[in-house]
Write a structure and sequence with these properties.
InterPro entries: PPR-containing_protein, PPR_rpt, TPR-like_helical_dom_sf. Pfam families: PPR (PF01535), PPR_1 (PF12854), PPR_2 (PF13041). Keywords: Repeat. The protein is mostly helical and 606 residues long. Helix 23 packs parallel to helix 25. The longest helix is centred in the N-terminal third of the chain and has 21 residues. It starts with a helix and ends with a helix. The protein binds one DNA strand of 10 nucleotides through helix 5, helix 7, helix 9, helix 11 and helix 13.
Length: 606
DNA sequence: ATAGGGTTAG
């Protein structure tokens, strides 16, 4: 089996380079890095003992039957309500708590209402569970009215209650209110925040992308307020990893260990995810080795990170190998696993295989909104819009509610095949069904309108965005500027660009590239070159797209020597010519208009 | 005895 997998890897490795991360590096090299990793990884896994199988004794020792479904809960609850005298509120709380853990928050609320009808009393625990459910259902208003109930009943909210509320506000991005409760706790004296309260706030900072504030709070905790625990460290380590600050994460990781706090599987999963995203396979393997040497065993999440990373690098065959290994090791692949695999096939355009995974999931009863969105995305990206639409209709029949991401995916699909009217219909439809458009929705639609040269409709949409007081960022202006160039409104494009700073916005690398492209097409290469200088001055570094754009622009305007200088610069910086730039260069070479050494430079040593 | 914070996929 392993040998078979190795053969698969060897056979498939040379052609499987779709990595964006290693763009600019010779393809073969990047692949061999991955293969080295994959070999190490597979060999490594086989050399490790399996995770100890849970003894059946502990299962027998469980005092009460565990509730695994909402139906169970309703049945047990019914029986309890009929008992005379009724069981204590503690028993009811246990059921509510378990259903809440299953994330069936509205079920908890209806169970709670049944308690009320049967005149079962409730206590601080009950109400705290209730608040938590309303928080997760985005109904902070009800959460607060439950808080009012405390006072009416003469109950004292405790640190659990306040922490739950703080978490609720943070989930809704209402940081000020969350901080308000926290400060009142500190000032109040009788209910001080504990490590969970601090941990919740740390998470809030991390969600806002403010890692340094999170670390500051950590330091404050260390000073004595209350000692940080593993969860607090995990929160920050994960956030650092998500922001590609893996070195900082690893430093914090060592610091944590020095303080005597042992990492767990979650810590390692975050770190492995972080290094995988950077393409650092060796480091991922090292961490995997390290965790097992500490008797921390990879779980479904760990494997999913590897499956997903391999899929995103185009190595679906290898990812399938990892899935087989999971099964071998008694770790059941879950929705996340299959969704990643499906996405991997979609990325490679192997839609039949993606469809097969989808059907497999269906037969296992493992389908969620993400599964549909992923496959819809696959079909859209390959312009099979009708298949995508069918799936979209099918998911509603299965009782799955399309979310904003699903709508965005399909919207983009319609736009990319030029079906703008369908897109705008869907845009109204999503709002009618209560799915709020987000920033990305507007970007997709605006871009669709611009790319299809429907500038007046684009400007109308932009007007709506302004009227709704939406936060209009640089990405939206990039789309508009490009749209103005596409429709030949060069002057307006330049005006919009020049007016950015007055709106408090900084052009980014994409903005400059769009400007450079537009100016070159208009024949204004010297102005485009001025922007290149401006980028340097403003510390906005050029990417491969910028280089390809200016080089193409110069060649098309017959400024070959200037183009040559930039080609050299591009290669020195580790970027490479894309297909269309390459075509232009090859064309020049055939006309003897450029130094043949240049081709070698671009293509690399033959 | 029962309640609150941390990991993976579109």
């Amino acid at each position: 089996m392993l040998k078979m997998m190795m053969r698969n890897i060897a056979a498939s490795s040379s052609s499987y380079c779709t990595s964006r991360r290693w763009r600019g590096m010779p393809c073969l090299h990047s692949n061999s890095t991955v293969v080295v990793f994959a070999n190490d990884y597979f060999a490594f896994l086989h050399s490790q003992p399996s995770k100890p199988i849970k003894s059946t004794r502990t299962q027998l020792e469980q005092p009460s039957p565990k509730i695994t479904t909402v139906e169970d809960a309703f049945n047990v609850f019914d029986r309890m309500l009929q008992m005379r005298p009724p069981p204590s509120v503690v028993r009811f709380n246990q059921i509510l708590g378990q259903v809440a853990k299953l994330k069936h928050y509205s079920a908890v609320i209806s169970l709670y209402n049944q308690m009320g009808v049967s005149r079962i009393g409730h206590d601080v625990y009950t109400l705290t569970i209730l608040i938590n459910c309303y928080c997760h259902l985005n109904q902070m208003g009800f959460s607060l009215s439950v808080l009012g109930k405390f006072f009416k009943l003469g109950l004292e909210p405790d640190v659990f209650t306040f922490t739950t509320l703080i978490n609720g506000f943070l989930l809704k991005n209402r940081v000020a209110e969350a901080a308000g409760i926290f400060n009142k706790m500190i000032a109040g004296g009788n209910c001080q925040p504990d490590v969970v309260t601090y941990g919740t706030l740390v998470k809030g900072f991390c969600m806002k992308g403010n890692n340094s504030a999170a670390i500051q709070l950590l330091r404050k905790m260390e000073e004595g307020a209350c000692m940080p625990d593993l969860v607090v460290y995990n929160t920050i380590i994960d956030s650092l990893c998500k922001d590609a600050q893996v070195d900082d994460a690893l430093n914090l990781f060592s610091e944590m260990i020095c303080k005597g706090i042992a990492p767990n599987v979650i810590t390692y999963n975050s770190l492995i995810h972080g290094v995988c995203k950077l393409g650092e396979w060796k480091e991922a393997t090292r961490l995997l080795n390290e965790m097992v040497s500490k008797n921390i065993f990879p779980d479904v999440c760990t494997f999913n990170v590897f499956v997903d990373t391999l899929c995103k690098e185009g190595m679906v065959v290898e990812a399938e190998g990892v899935v087989e290994m999971m099964i071998e090791r008694d770790i059941e692949p879950d929705m996340v696993t299959y969704n990643s695999l499906m996405d991997g096939f979609c990325l490679r355009g192997e839609m039949d295989k993606a469809q097969k995974v989808f059907e497999l999931m269906h037969s296992k009863g493992l389908m969620n909104v993400v599964s549909y969105s992923t496959l819809i995305n696959g079909y859209c990206k390959h312009k099979k819009i009708d298949e995508a639409r069918m799936l979209f209709l099918d998911m509603s029949h299965k009782g799955l509610v399309p979310n904003t991401i699903t709508y965005n995916t399909l919207l983009d699909g319609f736009c990319k095949v030029g079906r703008i009217d369908d897109a705008q219909k869907l845009f109204s439809e999503m709002q009618a069904f209560g799915q709020l458009p987000d920033a990305q929705t507007y970007c997709i639609l605006l871009d669709g309108l611009c790319k299809n040269r429907l500038l007046s409709r684009a400007l109308q949409l932009f007007g709506e965005m302004e009227a709704k007081k939406l936060d209009i960022g640089i990405v939206i202006y990039n789309i508009l500027i490009e749209g103005l160039f596409i429709t030949g409104k060069n002057e307006s494009a330049r005006d919009l660009f020049c007016g950015l700073s007055s709106k408090g916005l900084q052009p980014n690398v994409r903005t400059y590239t769009i400007m450079i492209n537009g100016l070159c097409i208009a024949g204004l290469t010297s102005e485009a070159e001025k922007l290149l200088v401006e980028m340097d001055e403003k510390g906005c570094s050029k990417d491969d797209c910028t280089y390809n754009t200016i080089i193409r622009g110069l060649i098309n305007n017959n400024e070959i020597s200037k183009a040559t200088v930039l080609i050299q610069q591009m290669v020195e910086k580790g970027f490479s010519a894309d297909a269309s730039t390459m075509e232009l260069i090859v064309n020049l070479l055939s006309k003897d208009e450029v130094d043949p050494a240049l081709l070698l430079l671009i293509k690399g040593p033959l």
